[in-house]
UniProtKB/TrEMBL annotation:
<dbReference type="InterPro" id="IPR045324">
    <property type="entry name" value="Small_multidrug_res"/>
</dbReference>
<feature type="transmembrane region" description="Helical">
    <location>
        <begin position="84"/>
        <end position="103"/>
    </location>
</feature>
<dbReference type="Pfam" id="PF00893">
    <property type="entry name" value="Multi_Drug_Res"/>
</dbReference>
<comment type="similarity">
    <text>Belongs to the drug/metabolite transporter (DMT) superfamily. Small multidrug resistance (SMR) (TC 2.A.7.1) family.</text>
</comment>
<dbReference type="InterPro" id="IPR000390">
    <property type="entry name" value="Small_drug/metabolite_transptr"/>
</dbReference>
<keyword id="KW-0812">Transmembrane</keyword>
<keyword id="KW-1133">Transmembrane helix</keyword>
<protein>
    <submittedName>
        <fullName>Quaternary ammonium compound-resistance protein SugE</fullName>
    </submittedName>
</protein>
<dbReference type="GO" id="GO:0022857">
    <property type="term" value="F:transmembrane transporter activity"/>
</dbReference>
<keyword id="KW-0472">Membrane</keyword>
<dbReference type="GO" id="GO:0005886">
    <property type="term" value="C:plasma membrane"/>
</dbReference>
<keyword id="KW-0813">Transport</keyword>
<keyword id="KW-1003">Cell membrane</keyword>
<feature type="transmembrane region" description="Helical">
    <location>
        <begin position="57"/>
        <end position="78"/>
    </location>
</feature>
<feature type="transmembrane region" description="Helical">
    <location>
        <begin position="29"/>
        <end position="50"/>
    </location>
</feature>
<dbReference type="InterPro" id="IPR037185">
    <property type="entry name" value="EmrE-like"/>
</dbReference>
Length: 106
């Protein structure tokens, strides 16, 4: 169940990051409300995952997958460029996430 909570937490993390861009410095009400709710949902579901997972594993996977998802969706939604160095970084993050999952023994 911890991995499911962690997956949900990463979705909230991506929503939080993308929502932050839409707030225009928290000057727009509904994007700001959405962003704050996504942040709270991410931290809450991460805390549920960390009841079982090591904090180093859970937090690293949460931020790693959140980062990759944010960059990929940022490219789709905001037309941000994905460069070869970004692709190499994604590969490193994904490799790290897989190795952490394997190392956790879960």
């Amino acid at each position: 169940m911890a991995w499911i909570y962690l997956g949900i937490a990463t979705v909230f993390e991506i929503a939080f990051a993308l929502g932050t861009n839409a707030t225009h410095g928290f000057t727009r009400l509904w994007p700001s409300v959405f962003t704050l709710l996504a942040a709270a949902g991410g931290v809450f579901t991460l805390s549920l995952a960390l009841k079982t997972l090591d904090v180093g594993v859970g937090y690293t996977i949460w931020t790693g997958i959140g980062s990759v998802g944010t960059v990929l969706l940022g490219a789709l939604l905001y037309k941000e460029r994905i460069t070869p160095p970004k692709l190499a970084s994604f590969a490193a993050i994904i490799t790290g996430v897989v190795l952490l999952k394997l190392a956790s023994g879960a």
